[in-house]
Amino acid sequence: MCPPRYFAVEYSINPWMDPDRPVDTDLAMRQWTTLRDTYRELGHTVDEVPPQPGLPDMVFAANSGTVVDGRVLGSRFRAPERAAEAEHFRRWFVENGFRDVTTPRQINEAEGDFVWTGRVLLAGTGFRTDPDAHAEAQEALGVPVVSLHLIDERYYHLDTALFVLSGGSDGAARADADTRVADPGPRVAASGARVAGSGAGVAEPGGDDGGLGGRTRAQIAYYPEAFSEGSRRVLSRLFPDAVQATAADAECFGLNGISDGRHVVLPVEATGLADQLTARGYEVRFVDISELRKAGGGPKCCTLEIRK
């Protein structure tokens, strides 16, 4: 994570940003701190990347890289206003012991448009990340990629319209792999055993999966109207048991949530989505991200998940 010390809305690169609308940086810092402390209370390690003056969107650390099995694919921003962030985060990865770090040639905004399910990388395009970046991600990370097309400019990144509730596994990727959230400050050790899945994972049937025992399918939540018709069909086929959010939950950035397979962190306004998740056995924790949302960000936007 990266503290919003220099947070401001000085330009407009998405429909949520209005430079004429006042921003309270101190309030943004308090909201961010609550989010960080929530992760720590849940037993997760949080690393903090130092913010840099002149980069007000650096708080949205999800756009800094994609990490799967210790491999890192860096970011390459579409907006020139954010371009300099990529090098600061690349340097952090190198300084913190990551040796397999790829600098992308294609525009990709990292975990904004790349969502790891434990078996496949869901990859968004339509507004920010180039379609060619999907193939580049597959080569750099060595995982299968499924392309999804976003069609509503309010949901300009995949992580504003979809998130993983519990990860799938197939023997190559472990659903309970170590995950930490990125920063070079003092790390907080996990409070005990790794958080296991909530029990909501769905056992895969035979057929396409070869009948392999113990295989589980990831469970996701998403807002169907953010996607093209073909992408909706793909999501329905891959995740028939997915939670489908309403427009109200999408508009408050409810799909920009974070789940560790048991606990789900959501914006306070996402009450309908919370009810659906509670009914499936998840434990919901609410946070207020009203100030950060003025720049088009929520809990996930502020969080890069590091999978060792």
Which value, in Å, is the CA radius of gyration?
A: 18 Å
Number of strands: 16
Structural class based on helices, strands and sheet pairing? alpha/beta
Unreliable stretches (pLDDT < 50, length at least 5) are: 171-214
Helix content: 10-25%
Q: Alpha-carbon distance between the termini? A: 16 Å
Strand proportion: 15-25%
Describe the structure.
The radius of gyration is 18 Å and the shape is globular. The longest helix has 17 residues, at 25-41. A three-stranded mixed β-sheet has the order 1-2-3, sandwiched between helices. The protein is built from six helices and 16 strands. The protein has helices at 25-41, 85-95, 132-141, 229-238, 247-251, 271-279, and strands spanning 65-68, 71-74, 101-102, 114-116, 121-125, 145-149, 162-166, 179-181, 202-203, 216-217, 219-222, 243-244, 258-259, 263-267, 283-287, 305-307. It is an alpha/beta fold and 308 residues long. The chain is 20% helix and 18% strand.
